[in-house]
């Protein structure tokens, strides 16, 4: 299999690409990476690292023409260049039109509405005055249509005066959900149309930065809720007719209804734990899907917790991992550092996966990691 498709190009050289390369090594696949940062996490381990802007048409075109398959680890790429590559016979997964749709949260939400996929009540708005017309949605979140990432471009609106300081740019006003849990299902589809989803995971977000702090797998939900979440993830990727890996973030609201929040067409923070916790990792599953190989088993090896390692507030400079030895002494702790030399407040610097058959100690150790491993400079 691998001798027919060996050169895979990745747009983006961050930690997701780094872990994808680590998986690709097992299959003797050659990986090329395009990223504007010469010190990106992928720079030291890719077979071919190209410093360049993945938002520049000609740069993406020149890079992609040297690859047999092109994929992404970040959505903010030049989709017109990807469309041209497809015309020239190069495989691009996920399809450029799907990346384009997901790049804009307005189009994303409209897609859910058009296909009767349950989601929060929303209104597409052009600016603060337009948003103010829909004050009946408060409390709500304003989300910029484009350029939002890792919690940026999202603003909570609780009172009418908050519209005075609204983020600049078109976006959507989304009614705040009274949810019981935030969850995610990562689902894959290959070119043959085969679909496999990972068991639902439960997410706990940082209230300040809207970044995932903790993840628990499997999610602590009922069997019926698990079935519903799986069916919803299958439905989304089928409606998109997408090839590749799709993270479907969901709300479980107080009434028990499951709603789609957002989707990401790439490996996702909510799937890091699959490296140790599942038979197939999300990274291997992405490779299997874009190469049209049989999809791997997503069964859970062991219950897991995943803790994001974020740069501590107030520190910027060369990264120092304070308390790392304490974490390494924990049974079932697996440390993943992303190779980022410089830490910044709330920058994703790594993650720790914990495996444990006891749910109580799993949660206790997750808190221990959060409290005892600090990234300073």
Spell out the blueprint of helices and strands.
Blueprint (H helix, E strand, L loop, with lengths): L6 E5 L3 H10 L5 E6 L12 E4 L5 H8 L4 E4 L6 H9 L3 E2 L3 H8 L1 H10 L7 E4 L2 H5 L7 E5 L9 E4 L13 E5 L3 E11 L5 E3 L3 E5 L6 E6 L5 H18 L3 E10 L4 E7 L9 H4 L4 H9 L13 E7 L6 E2 L1 E3 L1 H5 L4 E5 L4 E2 L4 E8 L3 H14 L1 E3 L1
Parallel strand pairs: 1-2, 1-4, 2-3, 4-5
Antiparallel strand pairs: 6-9, 7-8, 7-9, 10-11, 10-12, 10-14, 12-13, 13-16, 14-15, 16-21, 17-20, 18-22, 19-21
Helix pairs in contact: 1-9, 2-3, 3-4
Folded structure, characterized:
This protein has helices spanning 15-24, 57-64, 79-87, 96-103, 105-114, 128-132, 223-240, 274-277, 282-290, 324-328, 359-372; strands at residues 7-11, 30-35, 48-51, 69-72, 91-92, 122-125, 140-144, 154-157, 171-175, 179-189, 195-197, 201-205, 212-217, 244-253, 258-264, 304-310, 317-318, 320-322, 333-337, 342-343, 348-355, 374-376. It has 377 residues and is of the alpha+beta class. The protein has 3 domains: 7-92, Rossmann fold, CATH 3.40.50; 121-175, 2-Layer Sandwich (Dna Ligase, domain 1); 179-376, 2-Layer Sandwich (D-amino Acid Aminotransferase, Chain A, domain 1). Strands 10, 11, 12, 13, 14, 15, 16, 19 and 21 form a 9-stranded antiparallel β-sheet that branches. It has a 5-stranded parallel β-sheet with strand order 3-2-1-4-5, sandwiched between helices. α2 runs parallel beside α3 (79-87). The longest helix has 18 residues, at 223-240.
